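Quick check before the chapter quiz. The format below is the same one you will see on the exam, so make sure you can read both the input and the output lines.
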Amino acid sequence: MFENLDKTKTYVGLQVGTSLISKKIQKYSKVYCLDADFCPSHVIALVHKNNKWFIYESTHTAKPELGLNSGARHYDCEKFLKIEDNKLDQYHFYQIDLDINVLDELLGEKYAMASIKDLMLSAIFKNNGKQVDRVGVICSEYVAMSYPPISKYFDLPNWCITPAHWKRFVDGNNISEVKHG
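Here is the expected output.
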């Protein structure tokens, strides 16, 4: 898995999920990437260290059977394959220079479920950027904190960045998808 990727680089993965919450996220955040060929519902970071690929993400779903809590977490590729069994075609990867130290510092942060609701409402009422920073982090915010150019690009705080903003960012900056193999 990921044998086609450069181990010295970091990657952002955009998932086009099929769950009910994924469909809601896509429906309400599509406004941020109207011209895109897809609208993602989840964002992960992919980092190679200690001779393994690691996934960094923030999610509301704990996986106690794999020793994974909800919130900001990281785990190796083998666990990722167990979690995402037969769903790898939902992921699109882009090479972006993430700050791994920031990702590591934020491990253990709670998941910010209220932020998801705020982002959906801000899309409906067209007032993104006005929401308050909540305790915890959502997936797109977590990865945005490790890559300040995305917040500067949109002139928004990290907690206002959605998966759709990530898609618009890679498209707007001509960052090509990298096949993960």
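If your answer matched, good. The mean pLDDT is 90.
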